[in-house]
TrEMBL record:
It holds the Pfam family PTS_EIIA_1. InterPro entries: Dup_hybrid_motif, PTS_EIIA_1_perm, PTS_EIIA_component. Keywords: Kinase, Phosphotransferase system, Sugar transport, Transferase, Transport. Residues 29-133 form the PTS EIIA type-1 domain. This is PTS system glucose-specific IIA component. The keyword Kinase applies. Transmembrane segments: none annotated. It is found in: Cytoplasm. Coiled coil: none annotated. It comes from the Bacteria. Its main location: cytoplasm. It comes from Sporosarcina psychrophila. The keyword GTP-binding does not apply.
Amino acid sequence: MLSKLFKKSKLQIFAPINGEIIPLDQVPDPVFSQKMLGEGVAIMPKKGSIHAPIDGTVILVSDTKHAIGLRSSDGTEILIHIGLETVSLKGNGFTVLVKAGDAVSVGQSLIEVDWDYISEHAKSIITPIVITNSAERNVKCEVAKEGIMGETVLMTISTK
């Protein structure tokens, strides 16, 4: 009974888009593959919008619209970085549907993406999903090969 009282709660991070799940160390960008921003996974998208992978709050929308930061109620911070070297697109190809401070729910659409434009003008459409405060968390990456938006659990997070 006491073990249930003191059991650490776990946060599930769902796929924000449909696509192939790729280990972060296989992302062709050292900032992500060397986990400089934190632990996580990546998805090779199969089209569609970026959706909220958690219930939480938007804490950052980059000026160039290619990245969004979210915080869960337990303090876990998630960065979704759409494509590689997409900052150079200066917001072209992205339509942001939320702003910093907005509460979001799993599955809620956050950013519409023109994948054809991104494919043509950026290095890659691979989309890293990173726990930016993973040093303070236990992050367990799941081993599914295919992600289904709002259904597939990508990571399970618990506090240390």
